[in-house]
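for the record, two folds in this file. i put them one after another cuz i was lazy. first one right below, seq on top, structure tokens after. the second one comes after a little note so u can tell where it starts
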Amino acid sequence: MKKLYIRLKTFFNTIQGKIAFYPTLLAVLGFNLAFVMAWLEEKGVSKFLLDKAPQLMLEDGDTVLTIMSACIAGIISIMVFSFSTVMLLLSQASSNFSPRLLPGLISDKKNQLILGTYLATIIYLMFILFSIEPDDEKYTLPGLSILLGIVFTILCLASFIYFIHNMSQSIQINNILDNIFYKSKERLELITTKEEENDSDLLNSFPATKNWHSYNVTKGGYFQNISLKNITEFCEVNDTRIYLAIPKGFFVLQHAPFIKSEKKLTEEQLKKILDNINFARGEFVEDNYILAFKQITEIAVKAMSPGINDPGTAINAIDYLTELFALRMRKNDNGILLRNNKAWLKIAIVTFEELLYTCMASLRTYCKHDPVLVEKLVWMLQYLAVQKVYKNENYKENIANEIQLLLKDAKSSLANKQDWKKVKKMSAVDS
């Protein structure tokens, strides 16, 4: 039952990121509401409304048909405009910032709910329209259904105004960076909290896996989610340790070794393990904090490309990277999980050294010619060098190495000697 719940939750998180999820859901609700209202009209709900509030009832069927037709045509127009606006802004975000941002922008619930409101209202009005004849009199019209249709139309107009406001806000780079940062921060803090609770020397006691039994996956994809509780329980029950050789968020090839087991596994046991691992063709920051580093780095690199040349955006991106790296330094580099004071599971991870080098290599390549950005990167590395680390002083050695590499690239790229002297003075390092 637990496994089924996890798989359903993972499936829901995946489809929730699709732009058509909430519009489809609300469209079904609008369709069902139309039939519910038809049933209520048969029960005489409009006659009750006519007796209590006759001023809310329209006079004849022709007027109602005209109003309802105008409402449908108007909502279709603003829905088409809204969808066109979404596609245009997504295209701009992809070209100006990074294509990796698209899943996060598409999965914005607010925009999906607004588009779903349009679609639900159109479907509702169309089915209500079927029940109205031009020669219907006031007492035979489905008054409550018509009144609700008008209310929904007004709601769509208000939603359209909010949609324009929300899209103009969501496409701003500061808001994009904020969104990425807080999602990854929440994920990182959750991971580091769990590691601090399990602080023990056992976290470093995992045997070598060179001679273990290796197994492949039957279908490739991005290693997105895993049920740690179920797999560690499996390891304990079957008295075997497991090593997952591909880091989370990376693409797992179909014929590449992925699972290593201390003891030989049967096909049924291997299937149980794979049932608790989710593979996908996309990835989200909520599932993998590494993606946040990639996205923010790509935003900075894109901003410093010759076609865009936006140092301000690059500086903002470096500020967010600084905070994320500081959080990452509180996390260990072993990827070992405990159960009942024994290390049963180990997952390959992107080490701090690899993560820092990957980000800095891209930033150095595109920022080394700009003295202001070089100073900003030096400041970031110096800030990280004095942060608290998780029992791993190698982190500070990695930072010192990156400072040396940055200064070496800057010295060869800065044409003005005065710029180089200022950068060298700030770094307080002989180069």
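(here's the note) second protein begins now
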Amino acid sequence: MKQKLHIAGLLAILFLTASTVSASNPGSDSQELNAKELISEHLADSYEWHIVSNGNTHIAVPLPVILYSKTSGWHLFSSSHFHHGSASYNKFEIASEGKYKGKIVETDTNGNISRPLDISLTKNATSLLFASLLLILIIMGVARLMKQDPMKPRKGFPGMIEMLVLSISDGVVKPSIGKDYERYTPYLLTVFFFIFTNNLLGIIPIFPGGANVTGNIAVTFVLAIITFLIVNLTGTKEYYKEIFWPDVPTWLKIPIPLMPIVEIVGTLTKPFALMIRLFANMMAGHSIVLGLTMLIFITVSLGPTLNSTMTVLSVIFTVFIDVVELLIAYIQAYVFTLLSAVFIGLARIEPHTHKEKMSKPGQAA
């Protein structure tokens, strides 16, 4: 019975996803569907949180727009004034093409287009705040429950959270960093649950899910930079010695600092790898799900028989990829945390000790 409910739930989610894709392209029956453009629009950030469309009727949550113009100063208004990008407001509009496509631009009296300072609360930013608040409520609630009886074994959701905390703390952070691992445990646990929560919300196609937070390179860039700063600001003297004066032949360090340059480049490639790995995997997962869903609408013009066959295949493969995405949501959070812990551990190395004195004959070793 439970398996049937799970399958029904997945099919319902898929139906809602398909309905959203179909509704967002009202002319799909009369013109060719541009799959590439449609996927890009769904992955991109926006100034409103779209929920559903029915023909020309759109239901969306408007978000606050905060702009600063060099000519007219600060502006604060609702994104509903743009009417889905088809209108302008106070000389501001959402560009439909060009290098500022999808962004708010300002047109002056001479017709020149410029980009104002934009600190608006977009869909991804709102989802990020929502996920952070949800995570705080969950962790604080579980922590309060644990304080009531710390020795009592937990089941259900609190037990799952406890299992995840212990698996990251004892299975990842402690063996990767070493003796002072407790100093970095709060940050690494926060990173893991933050990424995991946003990954799960991104899989859900309906409000308040569906935002591409961890598939946004700006978010992964900030996370990677934080890890980079922690690694290099808390590194030991031995860590910096191995960077600027590594234990290699002198001719590799003087007169041309070949090995120090290689080591410095290595410190920069580590956060770059963190950023790209998380960004690319999550964006690719969303793209695959959207592409499989759109097979239903792409094959409409090929006849009912072929379209029905492709619809069944689309449902099967999309449900399968959604299940895989659940696993990837955990794996990517785990890998980011693991690599961050390894990089921190490499920066906490102690001076190397060598036994230079050999035991003399007849003397105990």
